[in-house]
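Page 37, continued from 36.
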C-alpha cells in the first residue's frame, strides 16, 4: 500500500499563519513522496458553530486555502468531511471499544470545562470522530501542530485496541510534528488560535496584513532603548519566516538600540508578504469562482468515499456486523 499522509482543519474561521507553518506547509511538502489525503473538518466545526451560512462559506474558504497553498488535486485527495459520512459509522464502532476514561483526559473537553463553557457530547467525543477520520483512510502519517498530538495518540490507542479485539484490521498511524514550528505565537504572544482572536490570517490583502502585524503586542520601550529580540512577539514570528542571515541582522539591530518596534513590524510584514504573495492570486481567483472549489471537493469526496468504504467493509466483517 502507498504511504498515506492525512490531515484536516476545522472551518471555524479563516486559516492563519499558525495553521500555515504548523500544518499546511509540512503536510503539503509530503505530497511529493506520499499519497495526500487532506480535508475540511466540517463535522468537527459543528461542535461549536451555530451559523449555517458561515459554516458553508468557511468550508469553501478553508478548501481555497488548501488549493492556493499548493494542494494538487491530481496527486492528492481533498474533500469536506461531511461528504464522507462513513466516518460517522466508524466513529460509532470505535466509540463502542473506547473507555469513557480516555475521553475524560482529552484536552479540548478539559479546556471547555475549565473555561465553564457548555460541553456537548460531540465535543466530548471529538477525539473518537478524529480517530475515525484517520483510521477510515488507512493513514500512516498525520502532520499536525503540537496541540493535536494527544488526539493522534488516542487514534493509535483505538486502532490497537480494535486490532487486539478483532484481529489485524486498522493501520496504526504516527503523528508528525515539526518541533521548530510546534506553536506559532499570536498577536498577544499566546498560541495563535481562531479561538483566541489573536490570528494573522494567511490571505489578507497586503494593507490589512500590514495593519494586523502593526497590532502585535510589544512592551513600551522607546526607539533608542536596546531591546531583547528573544522576548519580543514580533521577533518570535520573524524567526519563523526569515533566513538565518536576516534573523541575525535584525537581532543585532534590536540589541544595539535605535530600532523601534514599528521598524521590526515592517520587516516582519515584508518577509511574510513575500512568502504569501505568490499564492494570493490563486486564492483570490478561487474565491471569485466558488464552483471551481465545489467541483474539486465533489471529485475528492467520491475518491475518499471509495477508500473509506473499503476500510468499513473490513471493520464490519472483523467485528461481526
Ligand atoms: P485553531 O486553534 O486556530 O482553531 P485548528 O485547531 O483548526 O486551529 O488547527 C488546524 C491545524 O493547525 C492543527 O494541525 C493545529 O495543530 C495547527 N495549528 C493551529 N494553531 C497553531 C499554532 N499556533 N502553531 C502551530 N500549529 C498550529
Ligand atoms: N482536530 C483537528 C484540529 O482541531 C482537526 C482534525 C479533525 C484533524 N480530524 C482530523 C486533524 C484528523 C488531523 C487528522 O486541528
Amino acid at each position: 500500500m502507498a504511504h498515506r499522509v492525512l490531515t484536516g482543519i476545522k472551518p471555524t474561521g479563516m486559516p492563519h499563519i499558525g495553521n500555515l507553518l504548523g500544518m499546511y506547509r509540512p503536510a503539503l511538502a509530503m505530497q511529493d513522496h506520499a499519497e495526500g489525503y487532506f480535508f475540511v473538518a466540517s463535522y468537527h466545526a459543528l461542535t461549536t458553530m451555530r451559523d449555517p451560512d458561515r459554516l458553508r462559506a468557511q468550508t469553501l474558504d478553508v478548501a481555497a486555502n488548501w488549493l492556493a497553498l499548493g494542494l494538487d488535486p491530481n496527486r492528492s485527495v481533498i474533500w469536506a468531511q461531511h461528504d464522507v459520512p462513513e466516518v460517522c459509522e466508524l466513529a460509532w464502532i470505535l466509540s463502542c471499544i473506547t473507555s469513557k476514561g480516555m475521553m475524560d483526559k482529552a484536552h479540548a473537553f478539559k479546556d471547555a470545562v475549565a473555561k465553564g463553557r457548555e460541553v456537548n457530547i460531540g465535543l466530548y467525543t471529538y477525539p473518537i470522530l478524529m480517530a475515525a477520520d484517520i483510521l477510515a483512510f488507512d493513514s500512516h502519517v498525520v502532520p499536525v501542530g503540537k496541540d493535536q498530538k494527544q488526539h493522534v495518540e488516542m487514534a493509535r490507542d483505538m486502532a490497537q485496541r480494535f486490532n487486539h479485539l478483532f484481529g489485524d484490521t486498522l493501520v496504526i498511524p504516527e503523528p508528525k510534528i515539526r518541533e521548530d514550528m510546534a506553536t506559532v505565537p499570536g498577536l498577544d504572544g499566546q498560541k495563535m488560535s481562531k479561538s483566541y482572536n489573536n490570528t494573522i490570517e494567511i490571505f489578507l490583502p497586503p494593507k490589512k496584513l500590514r495593519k494586523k502585524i502593526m497590532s502585535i503586542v510589544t512592551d513600551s520601550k522607546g526607539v533608542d532603548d536596546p531591546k531583547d529580540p528573544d522576548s519580543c512577539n514580533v521577533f518570535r514570528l520573524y524567526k519563523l519566516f526569515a533566513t538565518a542571515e536576516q534573523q541575525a541582522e535584525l537581532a543585532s539591530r534590536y540589541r544595539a538600540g535605535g530600532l523601534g518596534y514599528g521598524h521590526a513590524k515592517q520587516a516582519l510584514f515584508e518577509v511574510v508578504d513575500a512568502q504569501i504573495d505568490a499564492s494570493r492570486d490563486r486564492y483570490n481567483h478561487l474565491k471569485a469562482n466558488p464552483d471551481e472549489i465545489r467541483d474539486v471537493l465533489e471529485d475528492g469526496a467520491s475518491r475518499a468515499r471509495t477508500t473509506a468504504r473499503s476500510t468499513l467493509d473490513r471493520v464490519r466483517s472483523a467485528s461481526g456486523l
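The longest helix spans residues 290-319. Flag for discussion at group meeting. The mean pLDDT is 96.
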